[in-house]
Description:
By secondary structure, the chain is an all-alpha fold. 31% of the residues lie in helices and 0% in strands.
Amino acid sequence: MIAYQDPNHEGNSPKHHNGKLCIEKGCQNPAGTAWSHLWCFKHNVERMDRINKSLAAIELRMLAKDIRPTGGACGQTFFGDEE
Ligand SMILES: [Zn+2]
């Protein structure tokens, strides 16, 4: 399990609570984890998951670009003739 997703991880312990409520609308949980002081544990996980997903998508696109030839004689791409 990834640390920020683990409710028993030290980074999610109450010592990180900042005495305020999570900034997510309507959420009554105490805010503050090792990863952000603005969100509660649950909403921090959702936020980090979203970030990880979009970063992974960006990374894949960058990787695809890097291994794609920039033109020239080769003509063969790793993925075939997509796009
Ligand atoms: Zn929350």
